[in-house]
Amino acid sequence: MAATLEVKFFNSFILRKTLNDTTNPAPAEWNGSRGDGTYPAITTNPDNERDWAIEESRIRGGYNNTYCGQGVRAFLVEDNPKASRRINSLIYSGIFNARTGINDTNVFPIGEDITKSVDPANGSIQKLYAEDTNLIIFQEKKVNRAPIDKDIIYTAEGTPNVTASNMVIGTVQAYVGNFGISKNPESFAVYGRRKYFTDKDRNAVMRLSQDGLTEISNYGMIDFFRDQFGTMGNGKLTGGWDIYNKQYVLSIQPDTSYVDYKTLSFDEQVQGWTSLYTYKPGMMLSLKNKFYTTGPSSTGVSDTGGLYQHYISTQPRCQFYGTQGDASIEFIFNPSVSVSKVFKTVNYEGSNGWEVDSFISDSTGIGSINTDFENYATTNTNDSVAFIRSYNEGSYDNFGNTFANLTTTPITANTTALIPPINHAGFDRKENKYVANLVNDSTAAPGEVVFGKQMTGIKGYFATVKVSTDTLTDPGGMKELFAVSSDFVESAY
């Protein structure tokens, strides 16, 4: 008669095929511990002992042991096992003793107090970071620290004293400030004793250092992060430390597309956000003074592609993941704040290859009266200028040849350059400075008689300007922009 026996102890071994025979050194074939045909069958000579390995299932097994004994084992059988999910608690196991070889990292004795909880009102634990003898605990709404292998005892005056303790995790203390990491642990990055992360729910980017929590998103970027975090939903906030430039890089990714995202960097040297980038990283890491990111896959829509190294001197600049882009800078001209001005020119100091994409005045505002006798604007209007080409891009001669055509296909077999005299429809060079006149390109506003290209310059209190590198002048080469200025005259005060 058959019987069913409950096994209380087991110590199983797995026999594994590691190599094929020497005549056919192909990758290893593994048929597992099952013989049901779900794994490839071994077809080579099984007598070659070098082709086989044996694995013990127990963690305590020794290396190259010749025998295995059961020994004495004590165990508890829980008749009604129950599992609970505690989002605000920590649990720790036994230790690994390298000297004796005893590994208790898989042991969680239920008879001992091996849990430590934080305030559940501050949400779930999202990330743990060990620093020296402290454990930093990031919750959704709070950041805490707990000593490891020591405890904190407070005196009658409230002064903390650190003492030795047999406790693995000591007293949990919260950092000053109602900030956490929300549900974006991927935004965490560390350099030295500085930790960077985001709190999307509070529209904040944070730095944790020896002076506590600091809201670095307040450094000129309050409105930007408020608008970005407020509309991103359940997107990703990927953070990383750029060891090459010593910057914290944050990529705001509302969705999985490669269109709607913002990647920018924070520099401790200037205490501000220095640049926006055109790449969308999947992950970021620094290793041996080099900065790496994972780029898009071959389909171009996911962030699970290969590893990409930044700042390689032999590679074109502004090229990310094989796609060549351009560099751009956007700034504001606002001299004599209360004076209405007419901006006449734009000029810059730097290298050849910069163009002006836009030069737009401030808004005129919307009029409140619109009658037969008075014609007020009912929509916002702005003055703008025509596109200004770079020094090379706008070059042409008197025979109709342009620099753009020469860089693609020569006009004739004997023509490899423009024929002097050379003219410039954009930036010209004077006294080692690139200068250009502003040609108005605005549409007619209500009541305007003279407008657009009939006028020189644009009128307004201030102007927003965007300059970028062109696509013809040494693509991927270094471009320097030292200073940009504009000549203006007073229109009204």
Top keywords for this entry?
single chain, 36% strand, 4-stranded antiparallel β-sheet, 2 helices, 493 residues, 36 strands, 3% helix, mainly beta
Fraction of helical residues? under 10%
Major sheet, described briefly? Answer: 5 strands, antiparallel
* Termini gap: 110 Å
User: What is the count of β-strands?
Assistant: 36
In terms of per-residue confidence, which ranges show pLDDT below 50 for 5 or more consecutive residues?
Answer: 30-42
Q: Helix count? A: 2
Strand percentage, roughly?
A: 35-45%
Overview of the molecule:
A hairpin with a 5-residue loop joins β9 and β10 (160-169). The chain is built from 2 helices and 36 strands. The strands form 12 sheets. Strands 7, 8, 9, 10 and 11 form a 5-stranded antiparallel β-sheet that branches. A 4-stranded antiparallel β-sheet has the order 12-13-14-15. A 4-stranded antiparallel β-sheet has the order 16-17-18-19, with no helix packed on it. It is mainly beta. Among the domains are: 186-325; 328-391 and 426-492, no CATH class.
Topology:
Elements: E1 13-17, E2 52-56, E3 89-91, E4 96-97, E5 102-103, E6 115-117, E7 125-131, E8 134-139, E9 143-154, E10 160-169, E11 173-174, E12 189-191, E13 194-199, E14 204-209, E15 212-215, H1 222-231, E16 236-242, E17 247-253, E18 262-267, E19 272-277, E20 284-287, E21 290-294, E22 307-309, E23 319-320, E24 323-324, E25 328-333, E26 340-343, E27 345-350, E28 354-361, E29 395-397, H2 403-406, E30 422-424, E31 428-430, E32 433-437, E33 458-460, E34 463-469, E35 481-485, E36 488-492
Antiparallel strand pairs: 1-2, 3-6, 4-5, 7-8, 8-9, 9-10, 9-11, 12-13, 13-14, 14-15, 16-17, 17-18, 18-19, 20-21, 21-22, 23-24, 25-34, 26-33, 26-36, 27-32, 27-35, 28-34, 29-30, 31-32
